[in-house]
C-alpha cells in the first residue's frame, strides 16, 4: 500500500505523482487520496486527465469519482466534459469545476486541480496546507 | 381587416350545433344573396336544442328537440351530418372530412362547440360511466340504467361527479330514472362557478331536501369495476370509497379547437380559438363562434354569448360593423323545485363592489345583490331558493337601484375545479409545494421550454423526483397547447426516444456506446443516455455489466453491483427467490453482517438488506455470500427485483396452487433481466391475495381453474392495481405470456416508464395487448420468445463472474493510490444495537465510531 502526500513538510506547491495513466479507465473515474484530501480523477476520450474534488457539495459525501462522465453542449456551440454525481445527478464542468446542472438547487461549484501526464505517470499540482 | 365580403360566396360552417344554426338563420333571413352554405356536423342529427337536453328524460323526443328546420331546407344550404371535419387546409381554402369529402370555402365558420371532459383518473372509461352533452349520451345512459337495473334486480346507486349547473341538472335526471343519486363536487360548495359559498351552502341543503345527496370537497381518484367489468364504485382523495352502479361526469367542457390548432390558427393555450370583436380568427377568412371561440382570454359555456357571436359574424359577412360586446354570464338552474340564478358580477369582482345579503337559512333562501362602491348601481346578484326576481333584476344590471345599507362581506372567489386535468390549485410536487397552476405558469409566463427548465424555475421535481413524470406531462400538454413540439428526445445527446433508439441499435447491429453515439447522437453522453444504452445493449448483446466500454456507462449502482447510500457506502441484497431462505442461508447472512459490521433489515421485497459496506469491502462480502450459494439480488439495476410470494397450497389451508414454487420459478427465470424500469412480480396462492400481487408489474393469482395473470400494477408514487390480462392459464402458458409481456415492454417503453403507465398508454389498451401476446397480432411473438430464451440461456450471476476476474475487481479499490484505505470521512454511531451514519453534529462532537463499520479491514 502506497500512501502519498506527507506534504505538510513542504508548504509550497509541488507536483505529486498519483498513479499510472494506465490505472485509469477512459470515462470512468477513480478516487485518489492525497493526505486526507480525496480527489476524483478522470481520463477522457481525447486523452486528457482531469482532477476535481471527490466531495459532492449537494449530497455531502465523497462520491464524485463514482459518477458518470459525459458532455454538455451550450447554445454558443461550445461543449464541455462533465461529471454527474451518483447521488442526485448534479453535474459539473470537469475543466473548471463550475456546476452545469443544479437539479433545481442553488449553485455549488467544486475545486479542480491541475494535472500533468509525464512519462505515463499522472501528476497533480498540490499546494500543501 | 380585408375587404368585406358583400358579394356572396361559398361559406363552410363546421359544427352543426346551436350556434351554427343561429348563424345560418341570421345570415339567410337578412340577405337574399345567392350564398352557398355547407353545414358539416359530426353528430348524425340536425342541429338540436342542447340547452333543453334534459327534457329528453321527461318525454321530449329527439325530434321535438330539433331546432327550426326552415332555413336548413333553404336551397342555398347543403347539409352534411355524421361526418366530422378532420382537417382545414388554409392555403388551398378547403376542409376535409373523415369520409374523405373535400369542400372549398371562401369563408369558413368554426362552430364546433365543446366536448364534455372526463377526469383523468383510472376507470373513468368503465362501462357505466357517462358524460352529459349529446342526445346520444342520454340515449346510452337511459339504456344502460334500464339494463343494469334488470341485471342487478335492485334500484341503482348513481354518482354525478361535478356539482355545477350541469351536474345538478343531471342529478335531477338520474333521480327521474329512479336512481339513488349523490352529487360529488370537488369544490367547497355546489355551483361554485356561479354562486358564492354562503349561497352554495343554502343550495346544498335544498338539493339534499330534494332527495339528492351532496358530497363536497371530494375529488375522485379512481373508479373500480366489479367482476363483470362495469363500474362499481369510486375512491376519493381522502381514501374513502363509495359504491356506484352508474356515474355521470359533469366536470366541465373543453373547446373543440383541435382543427384550429392543427391549422395553426392562433389559439389560447388553455383552450379556444382566439377571435377579435368581429369574431374573426387570426385568419381573415375564418370566423369562430360559440363555445369554441375564445374572446378576451376566455371561452364561456353558455348559449347566449354564442348567439351574439353568430349575429356578429353574420353581420360582418353582410358588410356590417357589429362587434361582440363581451360575455353576459347570467344563468339560471333548470332543476324543478330548486331555484338558483346568478347574474352580472355575481362574485363581486368589480373594484369596491358592495354586497347586500339577505339570508333565511331555515326557509332555504339566500339572496345577494352586488352594488357599486357608492351602493347605488346594481352590478349583479345571486338568488338561491327564490329566484322569482331574476327576470326583473337582471335587466337592471348597470342601472341605479335603491338599496338599504346592509351587511357587506367579501365572498370567497369559488374555484370551479374539474376538468380532466389536474386543477390549477392541485399540489403536484409535495416536496416544494408547487401547484399545477404554477407549472403551467412557468411555461406561459416564464417561457420555460421543457420540463428541465420548469424544474429549475419552480423547484417542482427537484427534490425527491417522484412527481417529475407528472410535471413532464403537464409541461408537455401546455407546450402542445402553445403549438410547440414536445420533444421526446432522450437527452441533449440523442434526438430519439428510448424506443426509437432501441430499434436503431437493434437494426444497425452496433454494440458499443462510442459507435452508437457517433452514428445516432452527439457529444459524449450523460447520466441519462449512458445507462439507457447500457440497458438496451444488455438486452441485445447480453454481456456482463462490467464488460469493456459498457462498464463505463453504468450508474454507480450497476457499476459496483450494490446500492449507494447517502454517505457513499453501499447496501448489499442477496437474492432470495420467492422470499425463500434456508436456515443455513440465514446463518451465513448473520455471520457476514456481523463480521463486516453491517446494519441489517428486512426489505419490503421479502429479503434481507445489509447496509454500510464500503466500496473496497464489496468483493469481500460477496466472496462469502457467493461461496454460501447466494447470488446478486439486483436491488440496484433497472431489472427484475423480486417475486413476492405467499404461503400457497404447500402449507396454507386455503391455497389452491403452489405460489411459492411458481414465484421461485419466475424469479429464477427473469433474474438479471434489464428493462426500462424495475420489474416486480407477485404470486398469491388464492384470491385472498396475501402476496399483494396486484400491486406488481405482473401479478399472478391462483384459482381453481389455473393462474390468473394481472399486468400493470404499481406501488410507489402513483399506486395502481394490476388489470386482469388472462384467466385460467397453466404453468407453461403463464410463463409464455409473461415472457412476451416483458419483452414487448422492454422493446417499446420509455426510459423509466414502469409497466403501469406503459400499459395505460398502449394503443389498443389491454385488448390490443392481449392480441399481441395471445394472437400474435404484430407477428413478433416468435421474436419475443427467442429474446427471452436467450436471456434465460445466457444468465450468469454478475457477482460470481466478477469475483473470478481480477481486472474487474480493481474497480473496487477505494483509492487508486491506496487501494484498501477506507474513505476517511465515513463515521457511524450505534442505534438500537446497530450502526447508522453519523450526523454532521455527531461527527463534529467526535462521539462516533470513526472510519467505517469494522475495527479491522479483512483481506
Ligand atoms: C430496500 C427497500 C426498502 C426496504 O428496506 O424495504 C427499497 C429501497 C429503495 N427503493 Fe423502493 N425499496 C424497497 C421496496 C419497494 C417497494 C415494495 C415492494 O417492492 O413490494 C416499492 C413499491 C412497489 C413498486 O415498486 O411499485 C418501492 C417503490 C420504490 C420507488 C417508486 C417506484 C414507482 O414506480 O413509483 C422508487 C423510486 C424509483 O425506482 O424510481 C424506489 C427506490 C428505492 C431506492 C432505490 C431509492 C434510491 O435510489 O436509493 C432505495 C434503495 C435503497 C437501497 O440502497 O437498498 N422504490 N420500493 C425495498 C427493497 C425491496 C427489495 O428486496 O428489493
Ligand atoms: C344538458 C345541458 C344543459 C345546458 N343548459 C344551458 C343553459 O341552461 N343555458 C345556457 O346558456 N347554456 C346551456 N347549455 C350549454 C349550451 O348548450 C351550449 O353553450 C351551446 O350548445 C353551445 O353551442 P355551440 O354551437 O357553440 O356548440 P354545440 O352545441 O356543442 O355544437 C357544436 C357541434 O359541433 C360538432 N362538431 C365538433 N367538432 C366537429 C368537427 N370537427 N366537424 C364537424 N362537427 C363538429 C359537435 O358534434 C356539435 O354537434 C347546456 C348544455 C347542456 C349539455
Ligand atoms: S393468499 Fe391464499 S394461499 Fe396464500 S397465504 Fe393467503 S390464504 Fe394462504
Ligand atoms: S414530490 Fe416533487 S420532488 Fe418530491
SSE inventory with pairings:
The complex is a heterodimer of chains A (129) and B (859).
Chain A: E1 13-20, E2 30-34, E3 37-43, E4 49-53, E5 55-56, E6 61-62, E7 68-73, E8 79-84, E9 91-93, E10 99-101, E11 112-113, E12 115-118, E13 121-127
Antiparallel strand pairs in A: 1-13, 2-3, 3-4, 4-11, 5-6, 7-8, 8-9, 9-10, 12-13
Chain B: E1 10-14, H1 18-30, E2 36-40, H2 62-65, E3 77-80, E4 85-89, E5 94-97, E6 102-104, E7 107-110, E8 114-116, E9 129-131, H3 135-152, E10 157-161, H4 165-176, E11 180-184, H5 197-209, E12 213-215, E13 220-225, E14 231-236, E15 241-243, E16 246-249, E17 253-255, H6 258-262, E18 273-274, E19 286-288, E20 293-294, H7 303-317, E21 331-332, E22 340-344, E23 354-360, E24 365-371, E25 378-384, H8 390-393, E26 427-429, E27 434-435, H9 436-444, H10 451-458, H11 468-481, H12 498-508, H13 513-520, H14 529-540, H15 550-553, H16 556-560, E28 563-564, E29 570-572, H17 583-596, E30 599-602, E31 608-613, H18 618-627, E32 640-645, H19 659-670, E33 679-684, E34 698-703, E35 706-711, E36 723-729, H20 731-748, H21 755-761, H22 765-774, H23 781-794, H24 798-803, H25 806-809, E37 827-831, E38 834-837, H26 840-845, E39 849-850
Parallel strand pairs in B: 1-2, 1-7, 2-3, 7-19, 9-16, 10-11, 10-16, 11-12, 18-20, 32-33, 33-34
Antiparallel strand pairs in B: 4-5, 5-6, 8-17, 13-14, 14-15, 21-22, 22-25, 23-24, 24-25, 26-27, 28-29, 29-31, 30-31, 34-35, 35-36, 37-38, 37-39
Helix pairs in contact in B: 1-7, 9-11, 10-11, 12-14, 20-23
The complex binds siroheme, flavin-adenine dinucleotide, iron/sulfur cluster and FE2/S2 (inorganic) cluster (FES).
Describe the structure.
Chain A is mostly beta strands. Chain A has one domain: Rieske [2Fe-2S] iron-sulphur domain (Rieske Iron-sulfur Protein, 3-layer Sandwich), CATH 2.102.10. In chain A, 0% of the residues lie in helices and 47% in strands. Chain A contains no helices and 13 strands. Chain A has strands spanning 13-20, 30-34, 37-43, 49-53, 55-56, 61-62, 68-73, 79-84, 91-93, 99-101, 112-113, 115-118, 121-127. In chain A, the strands form four sheets. A four-stranded antiparallel β-sheet of chain A has the order 2-3-4-11, with no helix packed on it. A four-stranded antiparallel β-sheet of chain A has the order 7-8-9-10, with no helix packed on it. The radius of gyration of chain A is 15 Å and the shape is globular. Chain A starts with 12 loop residues before the first strand and ends with a strand. In chain B, the strands form eleven sheets. A five-stranded parallel β-sheet of chain B has the order 3-2-1-7-19, with no helix packed on it. In chain B, strands 9-16-10-11-12 form a five-stranded parallel β-sheet. Chain B has a five-stranded antiparallel β-sheet with strand order 21-22-25-24-23, covered by helices on one side. Chain B has 859 residues and is an alpha/beta fold. Chain B contains 26 helices and 39 strands. In chain B, helix 1 (18-30) packs parallel to helix 7, helix 9 crosses helix 11 (468-481) and helix 20 (731-748) crosses helix 23 (781-794). Chain B starts with 9 loop residues before the first strand and ends in a 9-residue tail after the last strand. Classes of the chains: A mainly beta (129), B alpha/beta (859). Chains A and B meet through strand 2, strand 6, strand 7 and strand 8 of A and helix 15 and helix 16 of B. Bound molecules: siroheme, flavin-adenine dinucleotide, iron/sulfur cluster and FE2/S2 (inorganic) cluster. FE2/S2 (inorganic) cluster is lined by residues 429-431, 460-467 of chain B. The site of FE2/S2 (inorganic) cluster has 11 residues of chain B, from loops.
Amino acid at each position: 500500500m502506497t500512501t502519498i502526500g506527507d506534504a505538510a513538510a513542504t508548504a509550497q506547491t509541488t507536483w505529486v505523482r498519483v498513479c499510472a495513466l494506465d490505472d485509469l479507465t477512459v470515462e470512468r473515474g477513480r478516487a485518489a487520496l492525497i493526505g486526507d484530501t480525496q480527489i476524483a480523477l478522470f481520463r477522457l476520450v481525447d486523452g486528457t486527465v482531469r482532477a476535481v474534488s471527490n466531495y459532492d457539495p449537494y449530497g455531502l459525501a465523497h462520491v464524485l469519482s463514482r459518477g458518470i462522465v459525459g458532455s454538455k453542449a451550450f447554445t454558443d456551440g461550445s461543449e464541455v466534459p462533465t461529471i454527474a454525481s451518483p447521488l442526485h445527478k448534479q453535474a459539473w464542468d470537469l475543466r473548471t469545476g463550475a456546476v452545469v446542472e443544479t437539479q433545481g438547487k442553488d449553485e455549488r461549484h467544486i475545486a479542480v486541480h491541475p494535472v500533468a501526464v509525464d512519462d505515463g505517470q499522472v501528476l497533480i499540482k498540490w499546494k500543501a496546507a | 381587416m380585408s375587404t368585406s365580403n358583400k358579394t356572396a360566396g361559398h361559406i363552410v360552417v363546421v359544427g352543426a350545433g346551436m350556434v351554427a344554426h343561429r348563424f345560418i338563420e341570421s345570415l339567410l333571413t337578412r340577405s337574399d344573396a345567392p350564398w352557398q352554405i355547407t353545414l358539416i356536423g359530426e353528430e348524425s342529427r340536425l342541429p338540436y336544442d342542447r340547452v333543453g337536453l334534459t327534457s329528453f328524460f321527461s318525454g321530449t323526443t329527439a325530434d321535438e328537440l330539433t331546432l327550426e328546420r326552415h332555413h336548413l331546407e333553404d336551397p342555398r344550404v347543403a347539409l352534411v351530418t355524421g361526418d366530422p371535419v378532420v382537417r382545414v387546409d388554409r392555403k388551398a381554402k378547403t376542409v376535409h372530412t373523415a369520409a374523405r369529402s373535400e369542400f372549398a370555402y371562401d369563408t369558413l365558420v368554426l362552430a364546433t362547440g365543446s366536448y364534455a371532459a372526463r377526469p383523468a383518473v383510472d376507470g373513468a372509461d368503465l362501462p357505466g360511466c357517462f358524460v352529459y352533452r349529446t342526445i346520444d349520451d342520454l340515449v346510452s345512459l337511459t339504456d344502460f340504467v334500464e339494463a343494469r337495473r334488470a341485471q342487478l334486480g335492485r334500484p341503482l346507486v348513481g354518482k354525478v361527479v361535478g356539482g355545477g349547473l350541469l351536474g345538478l341538472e343531471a342529478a335531477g335526471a338520474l333521480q327521474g330514472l329512479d336512481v339513488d343519486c349523490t352529487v360529488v363536487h370537488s369544490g367547497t360548495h355546489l355551483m361554485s362557478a356561479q354562486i358564492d359559498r354562503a349561497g352554495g351552502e343554502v343550495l346544498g341543503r335544498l338539493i339534499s331536501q330534494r332527495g339528492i345527496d351532496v358530497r363536497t370537497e371530494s375529488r375522485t381518484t379512481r373508479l373500480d369495476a366489479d367482476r363483470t367489468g362495469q363500474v362499481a364504485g369510486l375512491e376519493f382523495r381522502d381514501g374513502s370509497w363509495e359504491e356506484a352502479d352508474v356515474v355521470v361526469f359533469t366536470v366541465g367542457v373543453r373547446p373543440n379547437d383541435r382543427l384550429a390548432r392543427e391549422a395553426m390558427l392562433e389559439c389560447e393555450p388553455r383552450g379556444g380559438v382566439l377571435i377579435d370583436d368581429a369574431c374573426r380568427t387570426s385568419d381573415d377568412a375564418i370566423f369562430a363562434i360559440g363555445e369554441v371561440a375564445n374572446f378576451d382570454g376566455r371561452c364561456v359555456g353558455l348559449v347566449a354569448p354564442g348567439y351574439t357571436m353568430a349575429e356578429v359574424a353574420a353581420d360582418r359577412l353582410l358588410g356590417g360593423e357589429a362587434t361582440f360586446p363581451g360575455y353576459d354570464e347570467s344563468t339560471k338552474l333548470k332543476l324543478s323545485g330548486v331555484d338558483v340564478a346568478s347574474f352580472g358580477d355575481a362574485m363581486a369582482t368589480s373594484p369596491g363592489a358592495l354586497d347586500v345579503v339577505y339570508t333565511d337559512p331555515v326557509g332555504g333562501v339566500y339572496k345577494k345583490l352586488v352594488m357599486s362602491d357608492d351602493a347605488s348601481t346594481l352590478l349583479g346578484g345571486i338568488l338561491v331558493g327564490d329566484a322569482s326576481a331574476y327576470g326583473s333584476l337582471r335587466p337592471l344590471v348597470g342601472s341605479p337601484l335603491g338599496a338599504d345599507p346592509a351587511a357587506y362581506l367579501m365572498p370567497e372567489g369559488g374555484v370551479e375545479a374539474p376538468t380532466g386535468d389536474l386543477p390549477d390549485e392541485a399540489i403536484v410536487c409535495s416536496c416544494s409545494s408547487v401547484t399545477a397552476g404554477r407549472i403551467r405558469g412557468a411555461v406561459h409566463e416564464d417561457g420555460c421550454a421543457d420540463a428541465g427548465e420548469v424544474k429549475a424555475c419552480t423547484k417542482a421535481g427537484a427534490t425527491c423526483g417522484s412527481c417529475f413524470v407528472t410535471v413532464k406531462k403537464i409541461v408537455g400538454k401546455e407546450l402542445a397547447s402553445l403549438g410547440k413540439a414536445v420533444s421526446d428526445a432522450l437527452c441533449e445527446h440523442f434526438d430519439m426516444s428510448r424506443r426509437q433508439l432501441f430499434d436503431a441499435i437493434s437494426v444497425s447491429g452496433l454494440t458499443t456506446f462510442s459507435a452508437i453515439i457517433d452514428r445516432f447522437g452527439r457529444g459524449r453522453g450523460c447520466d441519462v443516455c449512458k445507462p439507457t444504452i447500457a440497458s438496451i445493449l444488455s438486452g441485445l448483446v447480453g454481456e456482463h455489466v462490467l464488460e469493456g466500454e459498457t462498464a463505463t456507462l453504468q450508474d454507480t449502482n450497476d457499476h459496483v453491483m450494490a446500492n449507494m447510500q447517502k454517505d457513499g457506502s453501499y447496501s448489499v441484497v442477496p437474492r432470495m427467490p420467492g422470499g425463500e431462505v434456508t436456515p443455513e442461508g440465514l446463518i451465513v447472512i448473520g455471520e457476514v453482517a456481523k463480521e463486516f459490521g453491517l446494519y441489517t433489515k428486512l426489505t419490503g421485497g421479502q429479503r434481507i438488506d445489509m447496509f454500510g459496506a464500503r466500496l473496497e469491502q464489496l468483493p469481500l462480502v460477496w466472496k462469502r455470500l457467493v461461496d454460501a450459494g447466494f447470488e446478486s439480488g439486483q436491488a440496484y439495476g433497472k431489472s427484475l427485483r423480486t417475486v413476492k410470494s405467499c404461503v400457497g397450497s404447500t402449507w396454507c389451508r386455503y391455497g389452491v396452487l403452489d405460489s411459492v414454487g411458481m414465484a421461485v420459478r419466475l424469479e429464477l427465470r427473469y433474474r438479471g433481466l434489464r428493462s426500462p424500469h424495475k420489474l416486480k412480480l407477485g404470486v398469491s396462492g388464492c384470491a385472498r391475495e396475501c402476496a399483494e400481487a396486484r400491486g406488481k408489474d405482473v401479478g399472478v393469482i391462483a384459482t381453481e381453474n389455473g393462474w390468473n395473470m394481472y399486468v400493470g400494477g404499481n406501488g410507489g408514487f402513483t399506486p395502481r392495481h394490476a388489470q386482469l390480462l388472462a384467466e385460467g392459464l397453466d404453468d407453461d402458458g403463464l410463463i409464455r405470456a409473461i415472457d412476451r409481456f416483458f419483452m414487448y415492454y422492454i422493446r417499446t417503453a420509455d426510459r423509466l416508464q414502469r409497466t403501469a403507465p406503459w400499459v395505460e398508454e398502449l394503443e389498443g389498451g389491454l385488448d390490443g395487448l392481449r392480441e399481441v401476446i395471445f394472437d400474435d397480432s404484430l407477428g413478433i411473438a416468435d421474436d419475443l420468445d427467442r429474446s427471452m430464451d436467450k436471456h434465460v440461456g445466457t444468465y450468469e450471476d454478475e457477482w460470481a463472474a466478477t469475483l473470478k476476474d481480477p481486472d474487474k475487481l480493481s474497480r473496487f479499490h477505494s483509492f487508486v493510490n491506496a487501494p484498501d484505505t477506507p474513505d476517511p470521512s465515513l463515521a457511524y454511531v450505534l442505534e438500537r444495537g446497530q450502526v447508522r451514519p453519523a450526523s454532521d453534529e455527531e461527527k463534529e462532537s467526535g462521539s462516533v465510531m470513526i472510519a467505517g463499520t469494522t475495527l479491522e479491514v479483512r483481506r
